Amino acid sequence: MNPPHDDVLIIGGGAIGLATALALLDAGRGVRILEAGAVGGGASHGNCGTITPSHAPPLAAPGVVAQALRWMFTPDAPLYLKPRIDPALWHWLLRFAARCNPRDWRQSTQARAALLNDARARLADWVGRYGLQCEFEEEGLDYVFRDPRRFQQYMDESVVLKTFGIATQVFGGTDYEREEPAMLPGVAGAIRFPGDARLRPDRYVAELARVVRERGGVIEEQCRVDRLEPTPDGVRLATSQGERKGGDAVIALGAWTPAFARRLGIRAPIQPGKGYSITYSRPARVPRHPMVLKDRSVCVTVWGSGFRLGSTMEFSGHDDTLNATRLAALERGAREFLREPVGAEVHERWCGWRPMTWDDLPLLGRAPGQRKVWIAAGHGMLGISMSTATGQLMADLMTGRPPAFDPSPYRPERFA
Q1: Do the Cβ atoms of 270 and 10 come closer than 8 Å?
Q2: What's the rounded Cα separation, in Å, for the pair 309 and 52?
Q3: Which of 21, 106, 154, 231 could make a disulfide contact with 31, Cβ separation 3.0–4.6 Å?
Q4: Helix (H, G, I), strand (E, B), or coil: what is residue 89?
Q5: Which pLDDT value is given to residue 238?
Q6: What is the per-residue pLDDT across 240-294, written as a single tens digit (0 to 9) for each?
Q7: What distance separates the 2 farthest-apart alpha carbons in the chain?
């Protein structure tokens, strides 16, 4: 029996792979998604679900290296580097450190803002057009501070962000406590990003999968791709479910992209940045807006169906251990800010790997040296936020249509 021959084979069924599939289907292409586990079971599942043009500034910023060195031996620090011998990680860190300067910070911010702003508007359109039932709300996001110096630092940064089309509102501590009764006293101030939004990420990816199937796309779960070979008329994949053939292939494997791409001679310098979250039943008194408790780098998201604390960044390879110390840091941070920091029931304790590049920009486009292989990976902490713009950009590049914004900052060739 001959294997199926598809138009486009998408390797990876997270938010990026699904959004790319949906945009390609709308452009008239056929798609088959191959997912090694369950659709949306990776980093798409347990993140905080905030849609954040506010997060345009990259992790690589002036002062970050000194801060990271101070935190290096603090296991519950917001940014933690597990000491170990790993040449790829140290090479990545050196390149990352070299970008912690004002010029590169501004360059990455501009490119991230273009992707995030397009994705934010496109997401609202997709929710309406496809009827995505994912608890999407356009209610903004708040950065909340108890440290006055940190508050001032971010007020200064918010002035710069306005030049990238990211609006802010600033609140004094007393005014914010009056508006947000879920907070404990002692708030120094808050910055609201009214253009941000939120959704429930596991439901978002499930809805994307539903629409992809309804529009004729095929999704194969529990189908691990072991090898990709170019052919005269496209690509051939060896999978755990047999051979698959297609005209084009898109690698959308998140933090697993480097090992897969390496077999094709493609360089994808992505490090797995481990994040954690805890999902609870909804407390009685919850914040009115999603928020980041900036002094502790803890994100708080409220949905009708639950309540989640999340964040932290840990460079420990593909270690899938649930680190109790880092989970406890989420709850401790929430207790410093919120009257009801946790729900009565814990629904899930989770960790997952964010695909981090040293310039904080994804790899989007044709793979270097390949005619029929494309890459959509490396979105860091912003895969959900960037998913719709990524999907549309990939579809535009693959069909030869003019993209909505300049694709050059994300070209995979920059790492070749």
Answers
A1: no
A2: 16
A3: 21
A4: helix
A5: 96
A6: 999 999 999 999 999 999 999 999 999 999 999 999 999 999 999 999 999 999 9
A7: 71
Query: What are the tens digits of pLDDT across the range 356-393?
Result: 999 999 999 999 999 999 999 999 999 999 999 999 99
**Model confidence band, residue 315 (pLDDT cutoffs 50, 70, 90):** confident
Handedness of CA 200, 207, 273, 403 (dihedral sign): negative
Residue 357: alpha-carbon gap to chain centroid: 12
Residue 209 to residue 63: CA distance in whole angstroms:
41
* Contact (Cβ atoms closer than 8 angstroms) between residue 147 and residue 293: no
Domain at 188, CATH number: 3.50.50.60
Per-residue confidence at 2, pLDDT binned at 50, 70, 90? low
322: number of Cβ within 10 Å: 10
Return the C-alpha torsion angle 138, 151, 387, 306, nearest 10: -60
CB-based contact 34:220 (threshold 8 Å): yes
Encoding tokens for residue 248?
A: 């084009």
State both tokens at 63: 């002062």
Token duo for residue 50: 């905030």
Percent of the chain with pLDDT over 70: 98
Strand spans (E) along 210-269: 218-220, 225-231, 234-239, 242-251
Q: Residue 308 is inside which H or E element, if any?
A: strand 306-315
Contact 22, 12 (CB under 8 A): no
Give the integer Cα–Cα distance in Å for 48 and 36. 23
Q: Could you read off the pLDDT of 66-97 as tens digits, one per residue? A: 777 776 667 777 777 777 778 888 899 899 99
Q: How confident is residue 314, by pLDDT bands cut at 50, 70 and 90?
A: confident
Any bridge partners for residue 310, and if so which? Answer: 277, 299
For residue 287 the two structure tokens come to: 């914040």
Distance of CA 242 to the CA centre of its chain: 31
- Only one residue has tokens 């199937």, namely 213
Output the 3-class SS for 232-247: CCEEEEEECCEEEEEE
**64 to 68, 88, 108: CA distances (angstroms):** 6, 20, 15
How far apart are the C-alpha atoms of 200 and 351, rounded to whole Å? 16
Residues in the chain: 416
**pTM for this model (two decimals):** 0.96
Q: Which two tokens stand for residue 102?
A: 């004002």
Report how many domains make up the chain: 1
Return the structure tokens found at 362: 């994804």
Q: Domain range for residue 397? A: 5-415
